Amino acid sequence: MSLLAALLLWVMANDQLIDGDNSSMLSRIDGIVFLAFFIIFIYYTVGIAKSDTDDSPEIEIQNITPGKSFLFIVLGLAGLIIGGKWIVDGAVALAKNMGLSESLIGLTIVAVGTSLPELAASAVAAYKKQTDIAIGNVVGSNIFNIFLILGISSLIKPLPFTSGSNIDVMVACLASIVLFVLLFVGKKHIIQKWQGLLMILIYVIYVGYLVMTK
What we know:
- The chain is mainly α.
- The protein is built from eight helices and two strands, in the order ααβααααβαα.
């Protein structure tokens, strides 16, 4: 589904390349298609959850009251929103003062800033050996960002797309492919430390490419 989302984004956004139009953009029709796929994804995910027959022992968690749980969620969300805004606003202002392009800012600083909550959640989940949450959080976020966020955004206002962004979409496709392949290399269905380092290295190379070209 993650790879499908990235490929569909490439198809929807390349009006010039595919249809020969004068410009490329994510139109409102594209937004409706993205949202339709998002609904399918949610239906599919709920179906898996209902049919899950995993007999593995449950992980012990702290027993707290519903009221306290709700308070933790509200405070956590508030912290994520405020912290994320501070990080992004500060980073964007710093980057603009350094003369960096908006494309570079969006693909690196803003992307990293908005991904910090996912990093924190996945790191904590991995530490507590709740690996389904750690991986599902990241993969699900990629799917949500394309199908839901871009779907709603392009529905509100069509989003122009430049041919130079095709490389970035292809990197998103590559990321999904690399993750899938690594699940069958070495220890099956286990992402090992050397594989994690490999993914970090690929990201560093990608950022280096952005700095050199944008």
